[in-house]
Amino acid sequence: MPCLKGEADFAVTVAEVLKKWDSPFSVEQAIETHTKIVAMNLESLEVVRALRRSGVGAYLATNQHEYRAQYMSEVFGYADIFDGEFYSCRVGSMKPNPDYFHSVLKSLPIPPERLLFIDDRERNVAAAQSVGIHGVEYDMGEGVETLRGILRGYGLEICL
Question: Which Gene3D superfamilies match (predicted)?
Answer without folding.
Answer: HAD superfamily/HAD-like, Putative phosphatase, domain 2
